[in-house]
Amino acid sequence: MTATIAAAPPEFLARCRALLGEAHVLTAADMAPFLTDWRGRFTGKAAAVMRPATVRQVADVVRACAQWRVAIVPQGGNTGLVLGSVPDAGGRAIVLSLARLNAVRAVDAVNRTMTVDAGCILQHVQEAAAAQDCLFPLSLAAEGSCTIGGNLATNAGGTAVLRYGNTRELCLGLEVVTPQGDIWSGLRGLRKDNTGYDLRDLFIGAEGTLGIITGAVLKLYPQPKASIAALAALPSPTHALRLLNLMQDRCGSSLTGFELMSRYCLELVAQHFPQLPKPFTAPHPQYVLLELSSSESERHAVDLLENAIGAALEQGVIDDAVVATSVAQSRGLWQLREHIPLAQAADGKNIKHDISLPVSRIADFIAATDPLLAQAYPGCRLVCFGHLGDGNLHYNVAPPAGMANDDFLANQEAVNRVVHDSVNAFGGSISAEHGIGVLKREELTRYKSAVELNMMRAIKAALDPLGIMNPGKIL
Ligand code: FAD
Ligand code: ZN
Known about the structure:
By secondary structure, this protein is α+β, with helices and mostly antiparallel strands. The protein contains 16 helices and 18 strands.
């Protein structure tokens, strides 16, 4: 399909300048921030970066792209982790940044919905919801710069999925500019709508390969009165699963977070962010950060959590725990979890895996896979943490102490094979929440059946017959 893609000719750029204004068609050094991915792993080239301010302008630019067969890379906050938001090295594509489409269009407090532009920063959406005494629960460490359009395009997960679901579950309607430059307004605030194929769900998670999301209707929830966290220390992932069941049985939907972190993760955080709290004097093999939310009061949340933690200690499920006694203290505990990706980045490069497994099989997966890696790459360090309640692990492999990052990264494919073959054997997925992009495209063909891949290719060809939407990503 990429054969139809052309270089952007001068007439095309002139048309786009007429549509958007000279200042919003970048073609010089000012393109730089749009061309390199967040982790600094790849820098692509583009014919231009377009910065439309309205849905109409997005549609007009896409129409011009279709006319001149110019490839489009949609970009939100450029925080994606699989190279989906940056162009390839060819220099023929344009980057279409949604950053200027950043208005909250409407809030319907009775319907508990909010209609927003795709370029809204996630944190601003959360704040706009809070201003109406509502909760927009999507939460991830990149929330200060990622956009709701990017969250939808990647079906982002984060730390509140256990209670509220992925971004897909938080979206009722979409507005999309199709690869032909038409505007589909599917901004419906309906919780029930069985009127044929679900186009909304097709665009969510499509990583910009089927069209450009320009607006969305998001679900809002009642704001809990208080969310209180505890950090539990445990001997093993098996104990963490027992704790998960205990908490779910006792607390039901009040359990709003359940994050696993290995000892090495917290050691990395302590090394790179010494100012953060150090809750335990002696180290433990595993930790779980859990959070309970109460619609009554802070006191109620603390009591509920203290009772549940007491039961877990009594039953020998956990070795030790600290329970926050206020929302402020809870923030401090969450910071430990949120700083793991940052500590890893500060420590150097590593080979990342964003995997999901049936929750019941996680402990067995870790017990089976850790030794395989230790045998193949003696001394390699596993940075294993994640959203245990969702069956999602960030199972990252860092070089042995003293080995140069790049020397270790040369093993990426072989390391992936060990990890992903094991994931496959345990009935899991090679991408839980970050998507496929370019980074996992070859892996996808290895683990998905030909039947499934052919259906995906047929959908792509039907909606984007010219192949101009984010070519080379996913498929
Ligand atoms: P971008 O990076 O700009 O784009 C991502 C993909 O979506 C690209 O393929 C792009 O082409 C496409 N796209 C962007 N906007 C649109 C649009 N409007 N229409 C169509 N396609 C579009 N992800 C998680 O799921 N959970 C986490 O917990 C998490 N934690 C993170 C922590 C850190 C520190 C960082 C840096 C990233 C993390 N991520 C996480 C990954 C990333 O933040 C998410 O994938 C996020 O949803 C991307 O949003 P963005 O606006 O930055 O999108
Ligand atoms: Zn995550």
